[in-house]
Amino acid sequence: MLSKRIVVCLDVKEGKTTKGVKFKDNIEVGDPVEMAEKYYLDGADEIVFYDITASAEHRPIMIDVVRRTAERIFIPFSVGGGIRTVEDMREVLLAGAEKVSVNTAAVLNPRLIYEGAKAFGSQCIVLGMDVKKVERSAKIPSGYEVWIKGGRQPMGIDALWWAKEAENLGAGEIVLNSIDADGTKEGYELTITEMIATAVKIPVVASGGAGHPEHLYEVLTRAKADAALIASMVHYGIYTIKEIKDYLAQRGVKVRLKW
Amino acid sequence: MIGIVDYQAGNLTSVARALDYLKIPWVISSDPEKLKSCEKIIFPGVGAACSAMESLIKFGLDDFLKEAFYKGVPIMGICLGTQIIMEESEEDGGTKTLGLISGRVLRFPYPLIEDGKHLKVPHMGWNSVSWLKEHPLLKEVEPDYEYYFVHSYYPQPENSDIVLGVTSHGITFPSGLAYKNLVAFQFHPEKSGRPGLKLIKNFYEWKV
């Protein structure tokens, strides 16, 4: 039986790890390579890097971070942020990432998912989605809208529709991030997580809002997520990954306990 | 020196990095002549069986792998590599593969149900392996370790004696094979943390 995965997310800005609240006010919290290695040794099941200042000028810094990380951690890790073309994907994968995550570029050009999956296999292509709760409408029947550009631009696209569309295009996994919950430590957005996790056949990673192990329990059981992404909880030393996993195991969630 | 077979099937550098970390010398090549001088061979791979076979044939790596196997060179298959050592794969409407081991590669059945819940395919994430017998590669490998899997197909050898370990995902499938100088894993030891690195180290130290 598969274990539920605990994914540790590092927001990387110009080669440093940062953390914000609701996508804003980021502060520096450390060196991404050292932090990734520490979380690997502490029992993270996967590492995600988001290049939050992604641009052509900054790309070489990120590639260097990916390469140095790949030399030191031996669990899967994915990289997102500013990936716009199949060539961008290739560069990140060759530097040592297992998966690439596309978000804004995939909304603007859905073919990118298809082309990436064709070139590298679906298992390499992760769709990152930033969603925000809105009034239900004919256009947004799920009540959750897709935003792009790091939570700066609403797209008038329904989150549930987009998740299914991305699966059809060949995405191998979805990281679903709630802008409302991000960094609040008040718990994941369970409603849209469950809607998407039960509607698609690919794994769904819940993201945004984790502050207590109970939040992971809820999202992995009630909302049926396959994995839970955490950041603040471990970056500030409030919990260790082991403490979170022990808590989940005690409540009957299968997690990887030996590493 | 360990030779890593390069047949343009996925990211082989992760295997090389794991070997670097373990201070094991390696060479990546698609040239059979270069690989012939290696004492051991790792046959990794991610992707689809059909295009992988085409590349193997193009580079003459299909004959190289068969010869190496019959000569007794230790070979470790990983993921797609493990599937390609079988005779035939269900993937791509049926693909004839190397046939180092008798048996077929099957897709997970649909629907796949465990404890009343529909399971997802690909089988992606960490899962445990029940080791069925002893093997030099399992030296100091604890039974309750988990390993990282990403796949939709699995190998089903005709001879169940060569199944080294099994994993459960709706069905119980062979996740480790061992036959003479060949070992093969459906999971990725190079991405399975310390337990996976231990398997690779044991492969390096294995005296067939």
TrEMBL record, chain A:
<dbReference type="Pfam" id="PF00977">
    <property type="entry name" value="His_biosynth"/>
</dbReference>
<dbReference type="GO" id="GO:0016829">
    <property type="term" value="F:lyase activity"/>
</dbReference>
<dbReference type="GO" id="GO:0005737">
    <property type="term" value="C:cytoplasm"/>
</dbReference>
<dbReference type="GO" id="GO:0000107">
    <property type="term" value="F:imidazoleglycerol-phosphate synthase activity"/>
</dbReference>
<comment type="subunit">
    <text>Heterodimer of HisH and HisF.</text>
</comment>
<feature type="active site">
    <location>
        <position position="11"/>
    </location>
</feature>
<dbReference type="InterPro" id="IPR006062">
    <property type="entry name" value="His_biosynth"/>
</dbReference>
<dbReference type="InterPro" id="IPR013785">
    <property type="entry name" value="Aldolase_TIM"/>
</dbReference>
<keyword id="KW-0456">Lyase</keyword>
<keyword id="KW-0028">Amino-acid biosynthesis</keyword>
<comment type="function">
    <text>IGPS catalyzes the conversion of PRFAR and glutamine to IGP, AICAR and glutamate. The HisF subunit catalyzes the cyclization activity that produces IGP and AICAR from PRFAR using the ammonia provided by the HisH subunit.</text>
</comment>
<protein>
    <recommendedName>
        <fullName>Imidazole glycerol phosphate synthase subunit HisF</fullName>
        <ecNumber>4.3.2.10</ecNumber>
    </recommendedName>
</protein>
<dbReference type="InterPro" id="IPR050064">
    <property type="entry name" value="IGPS_HisA/HisF"/>
</dbReference>
<feature type="active site">
    <location>
        <position position="130"/>
    </location>
</feature>
<comment type="similarity">
    <text>Belongs to the HisA/HisF family.</text>
</comment>
<dbReference type="InterPro" id="IPR011060">
    <property type="entry name" value="RibuloseP-bd_barrel"/>
</dbReference>
<comment type="pathway">
    <text>Amino-acid biosynthesis; L-histidine biosynthesis; L-histidine from 5-phospho-alpha-D-ribose 1-diphosphate: step 5/9.</text>
</comment>
<dbReference type="GO" id="GO:0000105">
    <property type="term" value="P:L-histidine biosynthetic process"/>
</dbReference>
<keyword id="KW-0963">Cytoplasm</keyword>
<keyword id="KW-0368">Histidine biosynthesis</keyword>
<dbReference type="InterPro" id="IPR004651">
    <property type="entry name" value="HisF"/>
</dbReference>
UniProtKB/TrEMBL annotation, chain B:
<protein>
    <recommendedName>
        <fullName>Imidazole glycerol phosphate synthase subunit HisH</fullName>
        <ecNumber>4.3.2.10</ecNumber>
        <ecNumber>3.5.1.2</ecNumber>
    </recommendedName>
</protein>
<dbReference type="InterPro" id="IPR017926">
    <property type="entry name" value="GATASE"/>
</dbReference>
<keyword id="KW-0368">Histidine biosynthesis</keyword>
<dbReference type="GO" id="GO:0005737">
    <property type="term" value="C:cytoplasm"/>
</dbReference>
<feature type="domain" description="Glutamine amidotransferase">
    <location>
        <begin position="13"/>
        <end position="204"/>
    </location>
</feature>
<feature type="active site">
    <location>
        <position position="190"/>
    </location>
</feature>
<dbReference type="GO" id="GO:0016829">
    <property type="term" value="F:lyase activity"/>
</dbReference>
<feature type="active site" description="Nucleophile">
    <location>
        <position position="79"/>
    </location>
</feature>
<keyword id="KW-0028">Amino-acid biosynthesis</keyword>
<dbReference type="InterPro" id="IPR010139">
    <property type="entry name" value="Imidazole-glycPsynth_HisH"/>
</dbReference>
<dbReference type="InterPro" id="IPR029062">
    <property type="entry name" value="Class_I_gatase-like"/>
</dbReference>
<keyword id="KW-0456">Lyase</keyword>
<comment type="subunit">
    <text>Heterodimer of HisH and HisF.</text>
</comment>
<dbReference type="GO" id="GO:0000105">
    <property type="term" value="P:L-histidine biosynthetic process"/>
</dbReference>
<dbReference type="GO" id="GO:0000107">
    <property type="term" value="F:imidazoleglycerol-phosphate synthase activity"/>
</dbReference>
<keyword id="KW-0315">Glutamine amidotransferase</keyword>
<keyword id="KW-0963">Cytoplasm</keyword>
<dbReference type="GO" id="GO:0004359">
    <property type="term" value="F:glutaminase activity"/>
</dbReference>
<feature type="active site">
    <location>
        <position position="188"/>
    </location>
</feature>
<comment type="pathway">
    <text>Amino-acid biosynthesis; L-histidine biosynthesis; L-histidine from 5-phospho-alpha-D-ribose 1-diphosphate: step 5/9.</text>
</comment>
<dbReference type="Pfam" id="PF00117">
    <property type="entry name" value="GATase"/>
</dbReference>
<comment type="function">
    <text>IGPS catalyzes the conversion of PRFAR and glutamine to IGP, AICAR and glutamate. The HisH subunit catalyzes the hydrolysis of glutamine to glutamate and ammonia as part of the synthesis of IGP and AICAR. The resulting ammonia molecule is channeled to the active site of HisF.</text>
</comment>
